[in-house]
Every structure is written in C-alpha cells, then in structure tokens.
Amino acid sequence: xxxxxxxxxxxxxxxxxxxxxxxxxxxxxxxxxxxxxxxxxxxxxxxxxxxxxxxxxxxxxxxxxxxxxxxxxxxxxxxxxxxxxxxxxxxxxxxxxxxxxxxxxxxxxxxxxxxxxxxxxxxxxxxxxxxxxxx
Length: 135
Hints:
mainly beta; 19 strands; 34% strand; Hexapep; Transferase; amino-acid biosynthesis; transferase activity; transferase
C-alpha cells in the first residue's frame, strides 16, 4: 500500500503536503476543504484555503488556487485554472483550459466556455448557452 500524500516544494522554497482525495485521487493541500462527495480527478490540484462544495467535479489537470470557493454541483473541465479568492456559484460550468482570475465571481448556473478568460475581480453571469447577461 502506497502513501496517501505527496510533498511538493513551491516557488518560495516551502514544502506543501497534499493528500489524495478519496474520490478521484486529485491532490488536496493541507488547509483546503473538499466535500467527500466532490470528485477531484487525478492530476488536479486544490491549494490551501480553497473550498470545494458537495457534488462539484474538478477535472484532470485543473488548478484551484488558494482561498477559491467552488459551489455545489459545479463542473470544472480539465486544465481549467481558478485564481486565488475566486468564487464559482452553484451549478456553473467552467470550460476546458478556461481561466478565472483572482477574486473574480462567476454567478450560479453560468457557462464559461473552453479557452475563455475572466479578468481579475470581474463578476460574470451568463445564460445556459454562455451568452453574457447585463450586469
């Protein structure tokens, strides 16, 4: 039986310990909170202070930065990047290689398409087709 954690050194020379999530084997940093029913696929990283709610699906290779909040039943596609302090509302879908900037807000039920970028601090709401709604 192998160990259930991995130690990784960050850019500042600090060693962070990540445990493998029981549902998907993605790497969860100490200090992150991930609901047991969330699926975090192998190759995904959830950084310290991040929160992942029930039923969320974090795709392979996705990166959830510190203090990001992922709501219930959110789908984050492979290789998406959620910036520090960003918040993703319930049932939102984030596309493949999409980028959500630091402290950005994505409204519940929104669709952020593949390769789209949301700027730091931006608040976005879309309909189910991904068309942006007026603020």
